[in-house]
Amino acid sequence: MESLIGLVNRIQRACTVLGDYGGDSALPTLWESLPSVVVVGGQSSGKSSVLESIVGRDFLPRGSGIVTRRPLVLQLHKTDDGSDYAEFLHHPRRRFTDFAAVRKEIGDETDRVTGRSKMISPVPIQLSIYSPNVVNLTLIDLPGLTKVAVEGQPDSIVQDIEQMVRSYVEKPNSIILAISPANQDIATSDAIKLAREVDPQGERTWGVLTKLDLMDRGTNALDVLEGRAYRLQHPWIGVVNRSQADINKNVDMIAARRREREYFQSSQDYGHLASKMGSEYLAKMLSRHLEAVIKSRIPSILALINKTIDELDSEMSQLGKPIAVDAGAQLYTILELCRAFDYVFKEHLDGGRPGGERIYGVFDNQLPAALKKLPFDKHLSMQNVRKVVTEADGYQPHLIAPEQGYRRLIESSIAYFKGPAEAVVDAVHFILRDLVRRSISETQELKRFPTLQAELAAAATKALEGYREESRKTATKLVEMEASYLTVDFFRKLPQEVEKGGSAAASMDRYTDAHLRRIGSNVSSYVGMVMDILRNSIPKAAVHCQVREAKRSLLDTFYTQIGKKEGKQLTVLLDEDPATMERRLACAKRLELYKNARDEIDSVAWAK
Ligand code: GDP
Ligand code: MG
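Above: inputs. Below: predicted complex with guanosine-5'-diphosphate.
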């Protein structure tokens, strides 16, 4: 079986390539859930030395100040064929066999991201080392915890480093390799202070004590190494790295390992612990532990991956497909979007979505109420009837019925219907406009395209204005038609009026009150009949001219317009909100990462 560490290594590399190195709350992160060994310690505590011992190579940048300014993800792969080289993820096809060049590349690559400003960056550098002298292991080297910024570095760097280190050690899946120098009181160790905070039970902290050889003569570190000074679940491991003098003399790492082994074997103080000390033992233990942790975490990682894939999938379908580049496909997309809008709009009118019933409300409530409020009482009052009828008679009173008077009263009454008729047309117009607006905002597919939304809304509103004009003309015409030809039958059925006696003619008044009242009431019932007709026909006009047309041809002119557009103008219409485009891209990358990871895990028979 392939090692589980190798599996996590591959997923880790995919994370870096696809921009997941944790901490980015806008997207789900896989990086954070991967078990890894994180090296922490104060400056000069010996972190780099421990890493080099574990690798058996001299490859880390050195110097005063904060040298490590980006996380270094160090993936160790044991080779069986004797091959021995290093590879950076950012230089996929370049094999480094000269480790001095590796050191230089780490420094250069650090500067590439942080600039020469000496700032720190959370973007990791990934380095793989293939060697027969390593165990399978992944270690993350972080900037050393420090108290003071050196010249050229901003003061904030102290907190920034602490923040970055903390973000790594806080992850429950991280194994903390806490480096403390033996020639310093363990109570003041930066590594232990931090580890105690994030892992108070000491369950995932491995204590490493460096510089045992530098302790004052006559003192030893047994209190720490035997777990009495600070208790951890895993036993403390002491190491002896190369001293500065060794480094200056270029003492070979393999020779240094041998010397370390001899140190413990011959030590008066640590002889009894010799088999459980030294960097080789440390590497072996860490490898074994990391493997076990990975194995135990894989089911939950897989569950997380599956859940996240579902979430990303559904977000991607919400965001919609990316837009085609050729004009034909773009036109097709626009027409599809229009169709989607049209569908929603029709649902509003035909039911399925609310809104259409408001039109019926106009016909059923608003129109009758408006008709009822027309001032016919006053218009057909005895005084007004008298005024209109006498004016119509002119100098000669009529002989039988006051024909002209009737006509004038009826025509002037019918003219009152124009107001409610226009109000119906306007009310329907505003409802339709509102439904267009709502349909646009409810058309999921349109959400991404603010420009298209605006143009669609403008075109639809313009079409609705045209329908309103048509509808207004038609409704007015209906009213005018009622005034232009009166239903003769109605009057034939009225009881014939006979002027009684000559007394009326003789009086100054041409009409008796009773006669005028009867005229008023006859006109009123005729107007009532017309009102019934218009109460039915005005809604028909509105539906015919506005609602039916909106359903039929709301976007017709818009279609003609876009048919004439050139490729560039179509692109403008499909101008997406840049945030949406970015988000889609980011989600797609993350999704790819998660799917790759799932495939990777599936392909490893980890059940073994
Ligand atoms: P870092 O800042 O934590 O990475 O520390 P380094 O690994 O660069 O070590 C700081 C200095 O301590 C270097 O000069 C090392 O040679 C020296 N050093 C580290 N570990 C030991 C050790 O176990 N014994 C001795 N004598 N010197 C050590
Ligand atoms: Mg260092």
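The first helix runs from residue 4 to 17.
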